[in-house]
Amino acid sequence: MEQEQATVNLNGTEAASEKKPRSPRKKMSMQQKLEVKGFLFVLPALIFFVIFVLVPIIMAIVLSFMNYDGLGEKVFIGFENYVNIFKLDTVFKKSFLNVLWYALFAIPLSVVLPLTYALLINLDIPGKKVFRAIYYLPGLTSAVAAATVFRLVFNPDIGVVNSFLGLFGIKGPQWLESSSTSMLTIVILTMWQGVGGNMIIYAAALNGISPELYEAARIDGAGRVKSFFKITLPLLAPTTFFIMTMSIIGAFQLYDQVLMMTNGGPANSTVTPVFSIYERAFGQNSNMGYASAQAVLLFILIAGISAITQRFTKDRAY
C-alpha cells in the first residue's frame, strides 16, 4: 500500500513537473546583438558630447541671465544682458558687419577655387597626386603659425608682397594697419588654408559622377563646357551647398587669424563675433554672463542659418 502511494506521489510529482516546464532563456537575435554592439561603440562619443558640449551649452544659457565676472558672486539679472547687447553694444554689432564683409569675398572664393583645383587634379596628367598633396598641405598648417608667417608676408616695409609690387613701381599699402585692407589679408590667409580641404570634397564628388553621363552627352554633341554646366554643376549642387554652409559657419567662428594678425584692429575693422565674445569674457571688465548672452545669440543665428541652408538644399539640390 505504501509502495503504491509512493508511486502515485512520484507520478503526481512528475505530472506536476510536466505541467510546469522551465521557461527557456530567450536568446538575443543577431539584430539585437548588433544594436548593443553599436550602442557600446557610440557610448564614449555620446559621453564626450554630453560632458563637453551639451552641459556647457546649458551652463552658458543659464549664465547668460546673470551678472558674473568669473570670480565673484553670480547675480540674476534676467534679460538685461540681452537688452544691453541690442541697445548699447556697438562693437558686437559691428562684428557682424565685418563678417558680412568677410563672407562677401570668402564664400565665393571657397567655392570657385576648390572646384577649379578639383577639376585640375582630376585630369589625367602626370604628377597629379603630387599637386593634390601640395594644395592640401596648407590645411594641415596651424592657424597661429600661418598667421605669424602672413604678418611678415604683408609687412609694409620688409614683406614679400610689397617688395614684389615695388618691382613694378607700385607702392604697397599698409595691409594690416589700414581699415580698407586688413580684412582682405585675413580673407587671403583663410583661403590659403581652406582651399585644400574643400578641394578634396569636390574631388570626391567628381569621382562619384558616372562617366556614362559624359559619354551620352558626347554622343549627343555636347562639348566640355556644355557638359560642365549641364551635368557637372547640377550634380555637384549638394556638395556646393554643403561647402557654402560650412563657409558661412566658419565666417562667424573666425577668431585665430584675427587674434594673431590684427587683434581686432584697426578701429575694430576686423573684430568678429567670437573675438568680441572672448574679449568680453576674459579681457578687461570681464563679464562672463554678458559674454554667455553673446554666445547664445551667435548660437541661435548659426543654427538658424544652418536650418535654412539645409532646407534650401533639400528643396533645390536634389
Strand-helix topology:
Elements: H1 2-19, H2 30-63, E1 66-67, E2 75-76, H3 80-87, H4 90-121, H5 128-136, H6 143-153, H7 160-166, H8 182-207, H9 211-219, H10 224-235, H11 237-252, H12 256-261, H13 273-282, H14 288-316
Antiparallel strand pairs: 1-2
Please describe what this structure looks like:
With 318 residues, the chain is an all-alpha fold. It is built from 14 helices and two strands; from the N terminus they run H-H-E-E-H-H-H-H-H-H-H-H-H-H-H-H. Helix 4 crosses helix 8.
Short synopsis of the structure:
The chain is an all-alpha fold and 318 residues long.
Q: Give the SSE string.
A: HHEEHHHHHHHHHHHH
Average pLDDT reading: 85
Structural class category: mainly alpha
- Work out the helix count: 14
Descriptive key words:
about 325 residues, mainly alpha, two-stranded antiparallel ribbon
